[in-house]
Amino acid sequence: MSYLNFKSEYDRFPKTTIKNHRAFHGYDAIYQELNKKINNRSVVVFDYYPGVDEKEVYELIKRFNFSLEINMYDIFKDGKTMTEQMKYNLTDDRVFGKMYYGNLVDFIDEEKLEEAKNKVKEHHGSTIIYGVGAGLVSHGDLYIYFDMARWEIQLRYRKSMPNYNCDNYDEDILKKYKRGYFIEWRIADKHKAERFNCFDYVVDTNKSNDPKMISSDTFIDSLKQLAQKPFRTVPYFDPGVWGGQWMKEVCNLDVNQPNYAWSFDGVPEENSILFDYDGVTVELPAMDLVLYQPKELLGEQVYSRFGAEFPIRFDFLDTVEGQNLSLQVHPLTEYIKKNFGMSYTQDESYYILDAKEDAHVYLGLKEGIQPNEMISDLESAQRGEIVFDADKYINKFPAKKHDHFLIPAGTCHCSGKNAMVLEISATPYIFTFKLWDWQRLGLDGLPRPINIEHGKHVIQWDRTTKWVKENLVNATYEVKEEGNDCKIEHTGLHELEFIETRRYTINNDSLHKTHGTVNMLNLIDGKSAIIEGNFEPFIVHYAETFIIPASINEYTIKPYDCDEVKVLKAYVRF
């Protein structure tokens, strides 16, 4: 069946064209460019993000015939020592660790680091320092950074790539991901951000044996340009046990796949950005923009509150012709801070982009629930003794297109089948405590992690039917904005959540002001819209998420190739 009355133009690979710059495509071109800069006394640094294929890059290194090679693996502590040092942050949990706020150098053998520094100083021939953290030894005469996005790293984990300096080739994917999320990527981002202005070149290594290299001037100018105009991140899509069929048509995906469950389309921590340099497409982590241009992108207020982190997340959950999501709850701020080292939590909401007639959302508790009884039943169900009766304990609300369900942390919830959800939430997306998963196994054939022990400490037992209806279900009212006469509705979020969402129904030009904070938007109805301001006109299509940096003071939105559009905007509330 078709879910649209027009042909979808959803762009899966949105690019930003950068003029008057070039990229070097392939190892031959990279070798030729670097060879011009290297002589028999050069100190060259090849610094890697963890996940870069070091064997692949070493084939490039061998072509230069350096007289001294320093491999960072020889300077790091051995893998077992590193894992033992990480033990407190890794925890014994399959999914959850504790956020690590240290530095890459914490896992370096200090004596070996000093030895390496002295070798570089004393050597009179050409030198290459290569590997993760190579810039700790020296910035050298030529500094090349080999970069990679987190989503590509996760895909490589699935293909048996281990974590850095680890032999966990066949370890549970969730545990590999945990190590990356809580430790590796945090210290790697910090290391990278401290050295942005040292780079001479940056290399995109997201595709095996297909590198693209840009100069530091190109890298910096591209990020500066992007922080001054609307842009999209590169969405990615993944199947799931509960996945649906809606995104196949609307997002132009492979119709032969069994399902697509979720998509990140607007999560800079995970997504990439694509730059087009005269026909060569270079992919960089969107986090590079957040780390290098935080004030321009986020705005002074957001930056002062969250630091160089993008606090809003848009993603898709597709259960159309699929199944219920797991029944779940998210931690309160105090709980996530105390147990996981995060400074804010995963408040969220479900905006219903589309729905079949029997779609519904589970949200909040029924009146008169006895906490001990519900927890006891959840635990019995987890042991396989009973089937948990969700309808006995949890409210079940019908869901139709353009409904908005608000989900402050501590509220039991899940989307039922036959709903297409635009999930709007704060960024700590990993912190979902699953309470009940409808007797399912994951795609890997293993039971999906259930977190009743965490969940029972954060469930807000007073969020029952009456309160939920009054506060969390379509709590929508019209508002006015100066200079804008289109229909504007506040749709959320709840006063306990820091994100404001507004829905705009637009027939002509509508004026929007950022007020110095980043805006994240999705075209929730209508074929396409055009965004205009002090930048080149920017066209978005139905269901696409796009970002307006805080540096843009004003912009307009109007329908493009249609009569009316609806846009949902989210921004941090102060």
From TrEMBL:
Which GO molecular function annotations are given, in alphabetical order? isomerase activity; metal ion binding
Work out whether the entry's keyword set contains Zinc.
yes
Determine the domain of life of the protein's source: Bacteria
What UniProt keywords are attached to this protein's entry? Isomerase, Metal-binding, Zinc
Does the keyword Zinc belong to this entry?
A: yes
* InterPro entries referenced in this protein's UniProt entry, alphabetically: Carb_Metab_Reg_Kinase/Isom, RmlC-like_jellyroll, RmlC_Cupin_sf
What protein is this chain from? Mannose-6-phosphate isomerase
